[in-house]
Design a protein that fits this description.
Radius of gyration: 33 Å
Number of strands: 13
Length: 730
Amino acid sequence: MTSKISYIKLIRADIRHRGWLAALTGIGLFLGMPVFALLDIDSRSGGTAVAVDGSAAADAKLYMLEQLRGRFPGFISGSAMQYLAAAIVICAVLCALTGFGYIHSKEKLDFYHALPVKRVQWFTVRYVSGLLIFLVPYVICSGLVVAVGGANGILNGEVAAESAMAMLGGILGFLLIYHTCILAASLTGQTVTGLLASLVIAVYPAVVAYMYPALQGTFFETYTGVGGDITTALAERLSPAGMFVRLTEASGAGMAGAGMFISAAVLAAVLLAGACILYRIYPSEAAGNALAFPRTAPVFKVMICIPAALFSGFIVKAFMGIAGTRWIVVLSLLAAVLLCVLIEFIYQQDMRMLLKGWVSSVVSVAGVLIILCIFSLDLFGYDTWMPDEKKVSSIAFNPASFDVYFEYPEYYVKGGSPMVLSGGSSSDEEKEVLYRLAQTGVENLRGGMTPGELDLADSDSEIAEEYVNTVFRYQMGGREVYRRYCLGREDLREALDELGKSEEFRKGIFPVFHVDSSNVESVSYRDLYGIPASAELSGEQIGKLLDAYKKDVLAADMDVFIDGDPLGEIILDIPQGAGDEIRDTVDAADADWQWGIAGENGTVSVGSFYVYGSFANTLECMEGFGYTFRTEIAPEDVTAVDLHFSGESMRSGRYKELLSALPQDVERISYEDGAEDITLWSPEDIRAVLGSLEPYNAGLLGSQRWTGDYADIQFGEGVSSYSYEIREVP
């Protein structure tokens, strides 16, 4: 006979039995939300009032008010204080364990299931009472936080809406952990194993999602790491722990969109549905056992052991600072064996029964070994893979030197030069050139010239002098595939000579074609002195200068950009708001972080618009506006020169002739490795070395002539020193 006692009475009775938890939750949330918010706001605003006075105080208070408004929603979600986020997690765990922990006791389980109440009713009662124990004080404390904000003048319409989002984020975050623990309790027969299962379920999807790119990056030479957004998205959306962290942070910053809330709600619903189904079929004899369903033990053991062993291998290797990949194999296999023993002990709780699940142990260790063999031996040919040329719609490439030579306006939004800016070519001729270049990279890899070797090589090694790591992007319909190859500078030079014949290609890679002249607020230039000087130009003059520069870029031979020494560079100041149309396509949090590097006047300075001696149109235009690039440093403008010679240069006698021209009593500092620093103050000594100093410019493909020796020139204007390369005397 089923009881007709109402749900409300059962819920009230259950909450009374867990009154200590309700009181603890209320006190903890009260201290972590309104009390902390009040103290934080008072300390910040109070400090400002003491520090300044007059009109400066009003400006400072206004600035602090804006800072507090941006921080305020975090008082509700937990992003402004890690204690609150931890308190939400602890409340969720305690609510789940106190509500459903009875199923781990045979006596309690038999008692409750003997009562005339259906299992679904018990589940609903326990679930709702646990939810109310957290929800009621959390909503009340959220209201108190809002009241604190209103009393301090922080609250407005926008902040109120963001606070509501933060509260929703906190509730959904609680549900994620709450449902995870209930599901874990329904899978296990002991509280300890239930806690362990909760941890596994919370982080398992994230570990699996991140392990795949980690294996690729460790064992595959051509892996670029580009395209990891999919892995991150999967880890966040499928992992309760990842979703909790992302949700509380984003909602506290006012950046959580509808998609994130929907994803969290769906994941929470899936976890709850799974818990409810398992609870309904939970066997009474499971109480006291490690797992509620013994037949699943081997499956869970294999599923846990394989990624955990691989993860442990990476962690131990990183912690111990071990180089190479073979130790990952050894450490992962050792971790697999130890994990099998540990899991089997948890299952059996008897040292004599550790070999009972030997089949699943063998499968686990074999699974780890197979995965490591696939990646370490590259059995599927990841590194040597080349797409079918007919299926490729376009190819883009990006030598590492491009990131040093070019500076794109988009860099300040996206945090790096997008591949499309480095030569996305869809014409058959250009695509063929890049395809051949990629094939050369594969051949280099087979010959031992790998990107990893170049990454670790010394700057004066042969491979560093002759090769450049280059990323390729293959566009095949809606699919993008990235690979990284080690390419010779001469191969890249030949490819650039062919590609440079295309005007569209040059417009793609040179940053000046990505600048709207109407967005340029001001222009400055830097010449041999290395000191930026402002050019007072009108908007019309700026447009003419950029048009002249574009003509020179399109007309110049590619060798000029590779080997030429520029006279200087043009620097453009672009208002921060000029990138709004780009920022719309970027994640709000990332865009705000990147855009935060703008100057105090709200502009970003974009340089590296190099001017060469053959740029007749640009030089004529600059001279017409009254500005010229100095081609020599006047000795009378220099107050001191600091020369820095490496130990290798001193031992080899590379600068013997230059050093012999200096007097013996110059100021010197010698180091144990043979390196020397020499400071010159005398006008005669300064004049003797100026002819051997040139501003360092690596060129479009990087420079193999850099020796590590440099000079700092201090000018009479009191400007800070500027580094120059020391050239050998012919």
